[in-house]
TrEMBL record, chain A:
It comes from Schizosaccharomyces osmophilus. Its main location: cytoplasm. Residues 102-127 are annotated as: Disordered. Residues 110-124 have a biased composition (Low complexity). Keywords: Cytoplasm, Initiation factor, Protein biosynthesis. Component of the translation initiation factor 2B (eIF2B) complex which is a heterodecamer of two sets of five different subunits: alpha, beta, gamma, delta and epsilon. Subunits alpha, beta and delta comprise a regulatory subcomplex and subunits epsilon and gamma comprise a catalytic subcomplex. Within the complex, the hexameric regulatory complex resides at the center, with the two heterodimeric catalytic subcomplexes bound on opposite sides. The keyword Nucleus does not apply. SUPFAM superfamilies: NagB/RpiA/CoA transferase-like. Pfam families: IF-2B. This is Translation initiation factor eIF2B subunit beta. One of its GO terms (molecular function) is guanyl-nucleotide exchange factor activity.
TrEMBL record, chain B:
GO terms for molecular function: guanyl-nucleotide exchange factor activity; translation initiation factor activity; translation initiation factor binding. Belongs to the eIF-2B gamma/epsilon subunits family. Residues 509-675 form the W2 domain. It is found in: Cytoplasm, Cytosol. This is Translation initiation factor eIF2B subunit epsilon. PROSITE patterns: W2. It comes from the Eukaryota. Component of the translation initiation factor 2B (eIF2B) complex which is a heterodecamer of two sets of five different subunits: alpha, beta, gamma, delta and epsilon. Subunits alpha, beta and delta comprise a regulatory subcomplex and subunits epsilon and gamma comprise a catalytic subcomplex. Within the complex, the hexameric regulatory complex resides at the center, with the two heterodimeric catalytic subcomplexes bound on opposite sides. Its main location: cytoplasm. Keywords: Cytoplasm, Initiation factor, Protein biosynthesis. GO terms for cellular component: cytosol; eukaryotic translation initiation factor 2B complex. SUPFAM superfamilies: ARM repeat, Nucleotide-diphospho-sugar transferases, Trimeric LpxA-like enzymes. The gene is tif225. InterPro entries: ARM-type_fold (IPR016024), eIF-2B_epsilon_N (IPR035543), eIF2B_epsilon (IPR051956), LbH_EIF2B3/5 (IPR056764), NTP_transferase_dom (IPR005835), Nucleotide-diphossugar_trans (IPR029044), Trimer_LpxA-like_sf (IPR011004), W2_domain (IPR003307).
């Protein structure tokens, strides 16, 4: 399916693409929610007869969404989760059908072996002719061979052949839509899942340093502040985050936390007094590295120098199987207007002014991830990655 | 499917009447000729994206739901473009309609037509099709609506971007002055730029009515206006309004009867500019590449391109072929399928798709559109080379050159600075395909602007691609002389201030009277529209009778106007004086009837020269008055001997230049007497 086709078949998708491109939707959370909503529409609109057609359609849509704004990783993550969910639901369906079949066979005794290949749902002959090749099997085997990995659960190949047709019905659609709803619900309560862990990590009379503004970090701190007394230092994250950082500091102070705002230049100086650094993030990459808002690398390096633990609070939807091969394409540059006023005409016509919006923190500078599934060290992320995404979907 | 696409948007938007926007795709001027002979301005590529895309993105950002595009020149092209664009798909955030009105020749005509069509239901956004901006209009719209709730007469909000007077993105031709009430952000006075006019004249009443005023000459006016229904209606009422700024805003603000007010939103953040001239085209292109217009930057790939960003602000699409030894320097953008040859150096350049650049070329600051072919060993400066143009080997293209679509240039040609080449013979006066210009087997001739007036031609020059600050300063230098060493940015401020203080000091004097003001305007109009002396005199006489003034006042007004004119003509003072006096001196003569009045003229001249600090020019002016017999020798002598001329600070002139002149007069007289004597003797 080409980009043109997607535009025509799914207006909602091209609408989201346009808004991603013009940055009307940005930041991981809104992007994740919007992606899930759009995907729900896509699933309800798409017609498919085999699960592979559905997977293909979702993958095509997902790939065009990711291309629209490669730096919004959560978009791709949600697509990958949906792809995995489809596979799992299909697997479940397959298993139940199989069971039924076995049961039936048992009931019928040893009646026929050819019944396996008879179509079980009311499909026309033409459609059948189109599908004389079991795509699902083809894809599984070829892709897995390519990766040189053993087939996770060996399916008897000829059994797949007939049963893949079972999934053409509407029953699966309903299941999938419910599944997406589950993902959305999970997104909604991420902060509550993360904040309850704060008691294990924040102790009385500690000095915590954070940078910029993150809803997750804010919830995390405020939850602990209900019972414990500690102070928070907020580095403002100039030039793109300072307004948000100031607002967050104000909210923290209003919540009764002893809050100090410092400029980014003071980070290193103050680090020796800090007990723990808590950061939010834009995305967690496959190697455990972080894509954060600019300035965070500085915080992490200063923390490393003073052996201060760096804790990252993030929902699992920010975990992306992408590797940071090309840093320049990941670190987007925003308008230099936040650094230097456009009024200074002489200066801007002579100087090159760059305003990197993101920053990359290598994995070795992070000590702990606190996710909605619990706390993990960076080296353990691969496991969650395997649990959340299918290896086939790493590249959309 | 449309409703489903609007699903998410629909929830956010209020169910009020749809927000409408009018896009004027035509600019109603010829500044981009000859490029606009084949393509409308709004479809010219800026950083490989047609200009109108930036405007549409801007409107989408503002949450517009209905867009009407007014087309005039090349209407079919615009219509086809929009029909095939993404804005015509179901996923588009707004619906686009094109309105073709070939008869309209100005913004005024377009708005009058709009009024007659009755398309507008509520307040709308009026922009031209060449606006590049990322200012979120939501707040401005709310501000505007809130004002409308309180005061129905607040008919319009202009959105302008704060910059600096000599900002690269601010057109050098665009030195319009906004006077804004600081508290209410009401625009109380507007003055469009006029060449050589370096002062602002305002109604002193304004100062009484407003506590705090900002007089600003540092704003980029990108003509983003939020208008109410009344605006098109007012255009219909005043059928002579052409320009929305010069005529409409000025007209509304100076009219006592209308009672409408116009407000001004000065955007301090984000980006807003308009591609008004080639110079701003260059500047805005740079702004896009240095990401001021974020998120509307090349690597956002708004048009499904495939740009990626690289360090040093280099943008490249997929499938670009670069020779191993070529060098791509900073601030460069290269479209897909373009090839750059061996050892070529490309810097600060925008290159479209499918271009082929030969070996050993040096390109710095150029704009190459699509399918351009450039031979080996060429040197290209800050020039625009449009679609399908071909340039042979070993050519040099100097700064400011414009090579339109389809021009072919042979080998070893030097295209000189600011030369505009077009393949259309009908728009040229030169020799078709002149080998001296375009080389052997070349195609194209120099473009000749069919300028209707000199002003247009001057504008053409001023709108060239190269922005010469030096040139600007040259024309300002005379002013700097007058206003001593004030900052050039502020050149009009001290001047008007001086005028003001002078007025208050001599408040008992006539010249602050209504008559003087009206007469000044009448004379200035005569200057600008080049009336004949008879007509100008007739007008002044009518005015004199209508306002019950005397001839002294009329003459004072003329002298004042002439002096002002002299100081604002772009020429060395000497030439300026002779030019203005030769043309307009007779007007003064026509209204000077006897000896006493001649003396009176001299007094007035003396007074004004002091007040306008034009002492140095006094002697020459005196000479002209004498020469034109506006003041004969007796009058000069009487003036010289009159005690009033030696009073106070004006005495300086009498004692220096006056004396000089009288001395000369005496010797001349005696000489002529001698001659007469001689003649007599001969007899």
């Amino acid at each position: 399916m080409t980009a043109k086709d997607i535009e025509h078949t799914y207006p909602a998708v091209s609408n989201l693409i346009a808004r991603l491109k013009s940055r009307k939707v940005h930041k991981p959370f809104p992007v994740a929610v919007e992606t899930a909503l759009v995907m729900r529409q896509v699933i309800s609109q798409t017609r498919w007869s085999t699960v592979d057609q559905l997977l293909e359609a979702i993958r095509a849509v997902g790939s065009s969404l990711v291309k629209a704004q490669p730096s919004e990783f959560s978009c791709g993550n949600i697509v990958r989760r949906i792809l995995r969910m489809i596979r799992e639901e299909y697997q479940d369906l397959l298993n139940t059908v199989e069971e039924e079949h076995i049961n039936k066979e048992r009931a019928n005794g040893s009646s026929t072996s050819s019944s396996v290949t008879t179509p079980s749902s009311g499909l026309s002959n033409d459609q059948l002719a189109e599908r004389n090749e079991p795509i699902s099997f083809q894809m599984y085997s070829s892709m897995l061979n390519l990766l040189g990995r053993p087939v996770p659960e060996a399916y008897p190949q000829d059994k797949n052949l007939g049963d893949s047709r079972v999934t053409g019905g509407m029953d699966m659609r309903a299941v999938l839509i419910a599944g997406i709803q589950e993902i959305i619900d999970e997104l909604d309560k991420i902060n509550t899942d993360i904040e309850i862990q704060s008691m294990d990590h924040l102790h009385s009379n500690e000095i915590i340093l954070t940078q910029g503004c993150s809803k997750t970090v804010e919830a995390f701190l405020r939850f602990a502040a209900k019972k414990r007394k500690f102070s928070v230092i907020v580095a403002e994250g100039f030039p793109n985050m300072q307004d948000g950082a100031h607002a967050m500091a104000k909210r923290l102070a209003n919540a009764g936390i002893d809050t100090t705002v410092i400029s980014d230049a003071a980070i290193f100086a103050i680090m020796s007094r800090v007990n723990k650094v808590i950061l939010g993030t834009h995305a967690i990459l496959g190697n455990g590295g972080l894509v954060t808002y600019s300035g965070a690398h500085l915080v992490a390096q200063a923390a490393r120098h003073h052996a201060t633990p760096v804790v990252v609070c993030s929902g699992i939807y920010k975990l992306s199987p992408v590797y940071p091969y090309d840093l320049e394409s990941i670190i987007q540059l925003a308008s230099p207007g936040n650094i230097i006023s456009f009024r200074k005409g002489d200066l801007i016509s002579d100087a090159e002014i760059l305003n990197p919006y993101y920053d990359y923190i290598p994995p070795d500078l992070v000590d702990l991830f606190i996710t909605n599934l619990g706390g993990y060290p960076p080296s353990y992320l691969y496991r969650i990655m395997n649990d959340t995404y299918d290896a086939n979907d790493t590249i959309l | 499917m449309a409703p489903s696409s609007k699903g998410l948007n629909g929830k956010l938007e209020k169910p009020k009447s749809a927000l409408q926007a009018i896009v004027l795709s035509d600019s109603y001027n010829y500044r981009f000729r000859p490029l606009t002979l084949d393509k409308p301005r709004c479809l010219l590529p800026l950083a490989n994206t047609p200009l109108i895309e930036y405007t549409f993105e801007f409107l989408a950002l503002a949450g517009v739901q209905e867009v009407y595009v007014f087309c005039c020149a090349h209407a079919d092209q615009i219509r086809t473009y929009i029909e095939n664009s993404k804005w015509n798909l179901a996923s588009s955030p707004f619906s686009v309609h094109t309105i073709v009105s070939r008869e309209s020749l100005s913004v005024g005509d377009a708005l009058r037509e709009l009024d007659s069509k009755q398309l507008i239901t509520s307040d709308f956004i009026l922009v031209s099709g060449d606006v590049v901006s990322n200012v979120p209009l939501k707040e401005v719209l709310e501000e505007h609506r809130a004002r409308r709730e309180v005061d129905k007469n607040a008919i319009m909000t202009m959105v302008v971007r704060e910059a600096s007077p000599h900002h690269r993105t601010r057109a050098s031709t665009e030195s319009s002055v906004f006077v804004i009430d600081k508290k209410t952000s009401q625009c109380v006075h507007y003055q469009a730029n006029e060449r050589g006019k370096h002062y602002v004249s305002m109604d002193p009443e304004i100062f009484n009515e407003h506590e705090e005023l900002e007089i600003r000459n540092d704003l980029i006016d990108c003509q983003i206006d939020i208008c109410s229904n009344d605006v098109p209606a007012l255009f219909t009422e005043n059928f002579d309004y052409q320009d929305i700024r010069k005529d409409f805003v000025y007209g509304v603000l100076t009219s006592d009867l209308l009672g409408k007010s116009i407000h001004c939103h000065v955007a301090k953040e984000n980006y807003a500019a308009r591609v008004r001239s080639l110079q701003t085209y260059d500047a805005i292109s740079k702004d896009v590449i240095s990401r001021w217009v974020y998120p509307f930057v090349p690597d956002s790939n708004l048009l499904n391109q495939s740009f990626t960003y690289q360090r040093y602000q280099i943008y490249k699409e997929d499938d670009v072929v670069l020779a191993r030894s070529c060098e791509i320097k900073a601030c460069t953008l290269i479209g897909a399928f373009t090839k750059v040859g061996d050892a070529s150096i490309v810097a600060n350049t925008v290159i479209g798709r499918n271009c082929i650049i030969g070996n050993n070329c040096n390109i710095d600051g150029a704009f190459l559109w699509e399918n351009v072919k450039i031979g080996d060993e060429c040197k290209i400066g800050k020039a625009i080379i449009a679609n399908d143009a071909q340039i042979g080997h070993k050519c040099t293209i100097e700064d400011g050159a414009i090579i339109s679509s389809g021009v072919i240039i042979g080998d070893n040609v030097n295209v000189t600075e600011n030369l505009r080449l077009t393949p259309h013979e009908s728009h040229s006066q030169g020799i078709p395909n002149d080998p001296a210009l375009v080389g052997d087997r070349g195609l194209g001739q120099e473009y000749h602007a069919e300028a209707e007036s000199e002003d247009e031609e001057e504008l053409m020059e001023a709108s060239g691609l190269i922005h010469r600050v030096e040139d600007l300063n040259l024309s300002d230098s005379e002013i700097s002389e007058l206003s001593s060493s004030s900052e050039e940015d502020m050149d009009f401020v001290p001047f008007s201030a001086r005028r003001d203080s002078a007025n208050t000091i001599n408040s008992d004097d006539f010249d602050e009277g209504d008559f003087n003001k009206e007469a000044q305007q009448s004379i200035e109009r005569a200057f600008e529209e080049n009336h004949s002396i008879e007509i100008a005199a007739l007008e002044l006489n009518t005015l004199r009778m209508a306002m019950n003034a005397n001839y002294h006042e009329v003459r004072s007004a003329i002298i004042l106007a002439i002096l002002k004119r002299i100081s604002f003509v772009d020429a060395p003072p000497k030439e300026a004086i002779s030019k203005v006096m030769a043309r307009w001196g007779p007007l003064l003569l026509k209204l000077t009837f006897n000896h006493d009045e001649q003396v009176d003229n001299l007094f007035t001249l003396q007074k004004y020269c002091i007040r306008l600090t034009m002492e140095k020019q006094f002697l020459q002016l005196l000479g002209f008055l004498y020469q034109l017999e506006i003041a004969e020798d007796d009058a000069v002598l009487d003036w010289y001997n009159d005690s009033r001329s030696a009073e106070g600070d004006i005495a300086v002139l009498r004692n220096t230049y006056g004396k000089q002149f009288v001395d000369w007069l005496n010797t001349a007289e005696s000489e002529s007497e001698e001659e007469e004597d001689d003649e007599e003797d001969d007899e």
